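Researcher: Can you fold this with iron/sulfur cluster in place?
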Amino acid sequence: MNVRDYVLKVASRCNLNCSYCYMYHHADQSYRTQPLLMSEQVVHAVARRVEEHRRGDSDAMVRLTLHGGEPLLFGKERLIELVRTFDQVLGEYQLGLQTNGVLLDESWIELLNRLNIFVGISIDGPEVYHDRYRVDHQGRGSHSRVEQAIRLLQSSAAGQRIFGSTLTVVDLSCPPETLYAYLRGLDLLNFDILLPDHNLQYPPEQQEDAPYGKYLARLFECWLSENNPGVQIGFFEDAIGLMLRKSIPNSFWGLHALPIAVIETDGSLEPPDYFKSCAPEITKQGLNVLHDPIQSLLETSLMQQILEPEPSLCSTCRGCQWKEVCGGGLLSHRFHEQNQFDNPSVYCADIEYFLACTAVALDTHLAAS
Ligand code: SF4
Ligand code: SF4
C-alpha cells in the first residue's frame, strides 16, 4: 500500500500556546530541536520523494496538508516557492492547510485561493470555552480572531471556494447543544470533531462513566434533530458509513486505515504526529526525506500497525461486537508504556456508549424510511 496523504510541518513553532497541544504540552518535546521553518532544500526533497513514491501507483492523486505549529508562519514568499516546486515536480496534487486562523486576513485568502490551497480552521466553540485552552503566548484568548477569520472566508467568493471545514476538540464543559448551536450559528455546514489526545498512560480526568460517549450521543442527537442533509460532520458520517458496511478509509473509525506520512521541518520522515501524545520521541524513526525514500517509513513497526489494523488489535477488541466500526479506536489512544498498543482505546466505554446509541437511531431511521 502506498502513502497518498502527507502532512508537512512547514513551521515547527506556533503563535498560539494551546494548553492541550500535543506538540508543545505532551510527552514529546522534540519540536525544540527542529528548525523553525522547512528549508527550500527539504521542500525539494519532499517533492522528489513524493513523486518517486507514487510512480506505479495507479490512482496516484496525492494530498498534502501544510501543518505546524502554525503553517501561516511559513510566510507568503516561501509558500509561493513551495507551490512552484510542487507544480514542477508533482504536476497534479491536492494541497490543503490546517490553521488556527489567527493570521488569516484578506491577503492570505487571496493568495491561498490563487495557489489553490484549501483551508481548515480549528475552533473549539463559543468564546468562553475556546479561550480556556486556545490562548496565545501572553495568555490572551484567540477566539475573536478565529471567528473573524471564519467570517472573512465566508464573505468572499475566493474564501468560500477554499474554505474546507472546521475542527473542534471535544470539551466536556461546553454542552454539546451549545457547541452545535454555535457552529451552526456561524453558518458552518461542514465541521468535524476530535477527541482529546489521551491514552492509557495519560488518561482523561473523569467523574462519571463514559462522559465522552454521552457527549457524542447528545451532539449526534442535535445533528439528527436538525435533519439538514447539508450539514456534514465527518466523525458521525464515518461511523454510520461503517455501520452500513461501507469502506471508510482514513478515519478515526474502522479497520481501513490509510498510511499518512508526516515530514518535519528538518525533513524527518515520521508516522502520524498524534503519536507524540504517547511518549517522548516515539515518532522518531531515524528517517529523513533528504536520504530515505517514503517506502522506508512503511516498514517501521508503528506504520505496520497502522497498515495492518486487525492483527494489532488486543484480545478484548478482537472479541468486541463493535470491532468493525470502532477498529479499537485511534492507535495512539490505546497506548500504555507497559504493553504499548495492546489495549482497548482509553475511550472504549465512550465509544461503546456512542455506537450503541447511534445503532438505535439508525435502526429507527431505517425502519421509518
Ligand atoms: S494552534 Fe495547534 S499547533 Fe498551535 S498551539 Fe494550538 S493546537 Fe498546538
Ligand atoms: S476499543 Fe472498545 S469498543 Fe472499540 S473495538 Fe475495542 S473493545 Fe470494542
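Model: Folded with iron/sulfur cluster in place. Residues 5-308 form a domain with the TIM Barrel fold (CATH 3.20.20.70).
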